[in-house]
Design brief:
Blueprint: H1 6-11, E1 36-38, E2 41-42, H2 53-66, E3 70-74, H3 77-88, E4 94-98, H4 103-114, E5 119-123, H5 128-135, E6 141-145, H6 157-166, E7 170-174, E8 192-195, E9 210-214, H7 217-230, H8 236-246, H9 249-268, E10 273-277, H10 287-293, E11 300-305, H11 308-316, E12 323-324, E13 334-336, H12 348-354, E14 360-364, H13 370-384
Parallel strand pairs: 4-5, 4-6, 6-7, 7-8, 12-13
Antiparallel strand pairs: 1-2, 3-9, 8-9, 10-11, 11-14, 13-14
Helix pairs in contact: 2-8, 3-4, 3-7, 9-13, 11-13
Keywords: Pyridoxal phosphate, Transferase
Protein name: Cystathionine gamma-synthase
EC number: 2.5.1.48
Length: about 375
């Protein structure tokens, strides 16, 4: 019998397995509760916060894609972060988090630290001395985000994981920007992988969700228990839509990346662009590491314009196709201004330290015509000049 690959097994999760009527696409189970066989005799399912057949299919697909022991699907990406913080960072413990992580990640860890729940160090992981000094504080968790949001900095997952493990820390990697098809952090030493399933995994900007994939069954069981206790688990309909999105992930990613490569060539030599951030460029500081630990460079592009925030406003004024909106990874092209949107939750000082300026824009390149995307970006660059 053929040994089916990881992608084929994941994309066919639940297909043709309906025992009731033989539906090819697995049905959605919206029921809140399930029958007991008798007093003290629950079936495989009892209450949908605790377990749900539709959510289980999504979790199975995610665990298969990342190569983990199990996955816990939750209501949002930030719920996934909350789940890890509650399950694995003890009271009075410490977390080490990348200084240029997603603004919502920064805000959540900062809020929990302000409440005295634990301590947090926001550290430049590309500064070896600062990273080692932070590890010397005996953190419980080290939080990797690679590529980082929005400056697309690359962290060597294997090297950072080895150093963190030597310090006794659990390693978490946020893999939202690439998805399991372009990067699998567990294979490089991470213990847990986080996704905002809102983004590439769902891919259609109609679901808000998150997930944590664990390397070991013990870690997965702890997350499952905490997810149920905290009430963070994902609903059936969102799980159904996210699983539907995963089935087209490979096809979408190929077009996303092809279009991104076209726009990078438009942007890289234009005089209006002060800095271009894309790991696929040989001159990108993390290019060599990205090429080693990733199987593609993704479709997020960040650019800083000469002229600062005023140039950014001119770039956006009249921009076609790209919607000015938060989020990323959908079939539609999006653009955001991190300083005032996705990273507004960070303090001004933290944004400055991370390198997030008023002239910075982040593109999520969609699947529209590459020629049309190149035309409208070229027009925007001329306006910004």
């Amino acid at each position: 019998m053929a040994d089916l690959g990881r992608w084929t097994r994941a994309v066919r999760t639940g297909m043709g397995a309906d025992p009731a009527v033989g539906a090819v696409v697995p049905p959605i189970y919206l029921s809140t509760n399930y029958l007991f066989d008798g007093m003290g005799q629950p079936g495989a399912y009892d209450y949908s916060r605790s377990n749900n057949p539709t959510r289980d299919l999504l979790s199975d697909a995610l665990a298969t894609l990342e190569g983990g022991a199990g996955a816990t699907a939750v209501g949002t990406g930030l719920a996934a972060i909350t789940l890890i913080a509650e399950a694995f960072i003890p009271a009075g413990g410490r977390a080490v988090v990348q200084h240029d992580a997603y603004g919502g990640t920064w805000r959540l860890f900062a809020f929990l630290a302000e409440q005295g729940r634990f301590d947090v160090d926001f550290v430049d992981f590309n500064d070896p001395a600062a990273f080692q000094a932070a590890l010397g504080q005996n953190p419980a968790v080290v939080w990797i985000e690679t590529p980082s949001n929005p400056l697309l900095r690359i962290t060597d997952i294997a090297a950072a994981s080895a150093a963190a493990h030597d310090a006794g820390a659990l390693v978490v990697a946020d893999n939202t920007f690439l998805s399991p098809l372009l990067q699998r952090p567990l294979e490089h030493g991470a213990d847990l992988v986080v996704h905002s399933t809102t983004k590439f995994l769902n891919g259609h900007s109609d679901v808000v969700g998150g997930a944590v994939i664990a390397a070991t069954q013990e870690q997965h069981e702890r997350l499952r228990l905490w997810g149920n206790a905290l009430g963070l688990t994902a609903g059936a309909f969102d799980s159904y839509l996210a699983l539907r999105g995963i089935r087209t992930l490979d096809a979408r990613l190929r077009v996303h990346q092809e279009n991104a490569a076209v726009l990078v060539e438009v942007l890289r030599t234009h005089p209006a662009v002060a800095r271009l951030y894309y790991p696929g460029l040989p001159e990108h500081p993390g290019h060599e590491v990205a090429a080693r630990q990733q199987s593609g460079f993704g479709s997020l592009i960040s650019l800083e314009l000469h002229g600062g925030v005023q140039a950014a406003e001119r770039f956006l004024d009249g921009l076609l196709i790209f919607h000015l909106a938060e989020s990323l990874g959908g079939v539609e092209s999006l653009i955001c201004h991190p300083d005032s949107m996705t990273h507004a939750g960070m303090s001004p000082e933290a944004r400055a330290t991370a390198g997030i300026t008023g002239g910075l824009l982040r593109m999520s390149v969609g699947v529209e015509s590459a020629d049309d995307l190149a035309t409208v970006v070229s027009e925007a660059l001329e306006r910004a000049s």
